Amino acid sequence: MKAEKFIRSFSDRDGREVVLRTPKWDDLDDLLQLINSLVEERADITRTKKVSREEEIDWLSRVLSRLEKDETFYMVAEVGGKVVGVSEINRRPSGYETHVGVLGIAIRNGFRNIGIGTEMMKTLVEQAQAMGLKVLTLSAFATNECAIHVYEKVGFVQTGRVPEKFFKDGMYIDEIIMANVLE
Ligand SMILES: CC(C)(COP(=O)(O)OP(=O)(O)OC[C@H]1O[C@@H](n2cnc3c(N)ncnc32)[C@H](O)[C@@H]1OP(=O)(O)O)[C@@H](O)C(=O)NCCC(=O)NCCS
Hints:
binds coenzyme A; 8-stranded mixed β-sheet; single chain; 29% helix; 183 residues; 36% strand; 4 helices; alpha+beta
């Protein structure tokens, strides 16, 4: 799929237009700010170290190249010309799991709880169907009740739990494994 491909748009609960599209080079600084803001707020994600601009350039060039080759699907959410959300569907190129997509999503603080994550997840599921995927998986910190709620809303069920997978702020946190078997 090409960079900067329009997927769809909708209004968030504050009435602003949200555009879902594939990423482009010009998103670099927004994406860098987004990942580093998540690290800074100590969000329930696995990354704990901030990303340098050079690392982000490497990452985005890999993203755009894999997107063009249809190896992976990436989608951003744009509000008022700024990227406020990022998501992906990863699939192994060969082996016994090519029908499986692994999903990831993050919305910037200040743009949560207004429906963007749910709409992005719905769109990712539709996109996965269009890609011919049969099984979707993802995982979340057990403490991330908001994420688990959103995933359940779009058809994911909890299928497993890895006890004490994460150690954050002096506390062990279980990992919740979720799956969505597509029709
Ligand atoms: C998880 C995340 C993607 C959800 O996106 P979002 O745009 O905030 O989601 P929405 O606004 O569509 O929906 C949020 C839902 O969670 C609910 N919610 C909010 N806080 C909650 C909580 N503490 N417990 C349970 N539900 C909660 C809201 O009521 C809403 O549900 P509703 O629409 O049924 O009322 C977003 O919060 C995020 O990016 N968080 C930081 C990074 C992260 O955790 N990524 C996921 C890693 S697995």
